[in-house]
Amino acid sequence: MKPQTAKALQVGDALPPLTKSIAQRQIDCYSGVRPHSIHTDPEWARKKGFKVPLAQALMSTAYVSQMMVQFCGEGFVRGGRISVAFIKPVLAGETLTAHGRIKSREQEGGKARVTLEVWCENQDGVKTMVGTASGLESDLQA
């Protein structure tokens, strides 16, 4: 199924969610394995009060960015903005789902800037990140 694009959706509509399993190997690749890291050293993470290592917070941002590129295409790559807050840690082994809902559409430089409320939730439906992201509607979008 082809993802819906910026011009196909209206204010209030939701984007198709993007779900990712967060494996320790992915965290290691993203963070670079090093000792005394809550991201890649399980013993150190336990010493710091976590049952398993944590995913880097910016991994969540990367997933929202992927969702935005699927939605806005070049309009996010060349004109995208993102502002988020990380509100709960994401642990290795969890499943994370990125969500977006169109908040507004405003003219900017001859194109429309589409702003979305974005958030990530873990497999229990608990929000881990909240914020906004926007991109310009691309002339290439259907």
Describe the model:
The chain is α+β, with helices and mostly antiparallel strands. It has a single domain, classed as Thiol Ester Dehydrase, Chain A, CATH 3.10.129.10. Helix content is 24%, strand content 32%. The protein has helices at 24-31, 42-47, 57-72, 74-77, and strands spanning 18-21, 81-86, 95-108, 111-122, 127-136. It has a five-stranded antiparallel beta sheet. It starts with 17 loop residues before the first strand and ends in a 6-residue tail after the last strand. The model has no long low-confidence stretch (mean pLDDT 89).
Q: Give the ordered list of helices and strands.
A: EHHHHEEEE
Helix percentage range: 10-25%
CATH superfamily: Hotdog Thioesterase
How far apart the termini lie comes to 14 Å
CATH topology tier name: Thiol Ester Dehydrase, Chain A
Which architecture does the CATH hierarchy give at level 2? Roll
The poorly predicted ranges are none
Number of helices: 4
**Overall tally of domains:** 1
Overall pLDDT metric: 89
Into which percentage range does the β-strand content fall? 25-35%
Give the CATH class: Alpha Beta
Give a quick account of the main beta sheet: strands, pairing sense, barrel closure. Answer: 5 strands, antiparallel
